[in-house]
């Protein structure tokens, strides 16, 4: 059948192929998995242990003080202090303990440990301890012990509640939608009409316009920013309207997506069978009717491909939003909000990971639901034209 | 918030309606201005011709307007602004260019951009090709491809948070919660602050883009691999070639064109890389790249349009050869149409 199938017969042993693909998938998935898991952990646990230990429960090192010598009870020749290391209300199960900070796991829990000076200390898993000595305890404060405490895996949705309400991510989510949806839908129609004209209408300058469109596909956004920023400011001053507005960014996104849209749609529309269009013309249909009744329905796959591109691009964009939108609450998009949080919430991973996951969940749903069209669009855009 | 949703939905509906109305109305006006009388064949054919002459421009109008206002005009304007001072009001000749050549940060950015260009397109294409070959040979290949392709959907900012968490460093005796430092520690190394490690930090930022773009290369190259005619492979098998030889000597040469396309597409993306550097380091610790430097100068101290225009032009100049090549390819294709 295909070249790949025949290579299979003579290629490397299958097992190695399976194993390497598995490893690659694992590597590619791990980063995203990391923030997904972390976003459901409690703040304390996130900093206490790596997210990869989240399912086994974390081993936290903590310190506790045993009861004071004055509470010791004499039992024959030995003096005993007993109680629980979890008196501060903390819970968990002790895995190991030690008397030096450098070795918090020196002794296993539940077994009597000889800690020198004739002292014996037993700390059970539930935190209860027996500290005994064959002579009276010296007076002073209680002995300090170091514990390795296993906390059971626990997950919470609290982080999401926090970022959605108090960190403004909920509002930014709406802002992102406000930017992305119109900026996806408006250019499609405009580009489709242009693509039809460039495919099926004869007029002078057509080749030139196609060349222009192809050329503009790769023009870096950076070339446009300064003059547009000046233009927007002048328009804002002249009409007394804010220069940073949703209308401004919709038009900007529409225009920046236009070359690729026209190119993709023209590739597709010019490939439609000539007979359909010509027979419609013979039947007396105008170009407008042909476009609306024949071209648009037939080019659905291409329209879908482009809308996915454009949606992902506008949703994920940071640069255009930073230039054309304000940083106020009512205009800050998700990418901008996340960028701001990275600055202000530096080490607060419970906030950052939950926010990051909210920003990537929509594109990922779109991606998995419409992957077929995305791939088709990529192939049409890259392989065919170059 | 509710009112904002309502107004956004309203705009979508209104926008689509206005667009449709424009095309419909302009077509109607065209028919009224150039009527086609049934009794006068001559006038009818003249007017039909006129309609055919005007209609393409009605269809193209809005698209051309957007392209000219948002892309063509700004490109020209940026070119001229590069010869003017910070406010764009006074002609300063080549002063901005002279500044750029002597500016240490500009040189640093050029160096870093070249570094990115040398590493990222090559790495993405290489990994993409290897993964495409491997996944095409197993039954769950499509699932594997989906997973590797998925980062394409993630924003650069989101990806930066994801990777910043991997590179996280915690000082002193604290537990390392960043995966990379935990691994380094587990194999006996000492944890590092990866994103401020001179020179090498660039590569840690590049890893993010490679992670995102490998899926793109894989999808395109996988389609190209499937298009290789089987006879060429079979002939090689009969001649006694092994898998390695078939891959390098039969398959790769046949998809050179596609490899070039993937390479150039990622090259353009790399030239414009902005979000990753902004969110990871904001250009600190010698990681500045051109796009970030340009953005910096757009707003630094009230903005310097001359200097940032020069930086934008450098990016544009780097893209231009690819642009010309694309246009020539497109023209060739249309010639054969």
From TrEMBL, chain A:
Keyword Transport: yes
Membrane topology category: Multi-pass membrane protein
Alphabetical list of Pfam families matching this protein: BPD_transp_1
GO cellular component: plasma membrane
Domain of life the protein comes from: Bacteria
Domain ABC transmembrane type-1: residue ranges: 173-370
Transmembrane feature ranges: 12-30, 179-200, 207-229, 290-313, 351-370
UniProt keyword list: Cell membrane, Membrane, Transmembrane, Transmembrane helix, Transport
GO biological process, alphabetically ordered: transmembrane transport
Compartments in which it is found: Cell membrane
InterPro entries with a match to the protein in the record: MetI-like, MetI-like_sf
Protein family: Belongs to the binding-protein-dependent transport system permease family.
Protein name (database record): Alpha-glucoside transport system permease protein AglG
Organism: Neorhizobium galegae bv. officinalis bv. officinalis str. HAMBI 1141
TrEMBL record, chain B:
GO biological process: transmembrane transport
Domain of life per record: Bacteria
Record-level GO cellular component terms: plasma membrane
Pfam families for the chain: BPD_transp_1
Species, as recorded: Neorhizobium galegae bv. officinalis bv. officinalis str. HAMBI 1141
Gene3D superfamilies: MetI-like (1.10.3720.10)
Residue ranges of every copy of the ABC transmembrane type-1 domain listed in the record: 110-326
Intracellular or extracellular location(s): Cell membrane
Protein name in the entry: Alpha-glucoside transport system permease protein AglF
InterPro entries per record: ABC_transporter_permease (IPR051393), MetI-like (IPR000515), MetI-like_sf (IPR035906)
Keywords carried by this UniProt record: Cell membrane, Membrane, Transmembrane, Transmembrane helix, Transport
Residue ranges of coiled coil: none
Entry similarity comment: Belongs to the binding-protein-dependent transport system permease family.
Transmembrane portions of the chain: 6-25, 57-84, 114-135, 147-166, 203-225, 246-271, 308-327
Membrane topology listed for this record: Multi-pass membrane protein
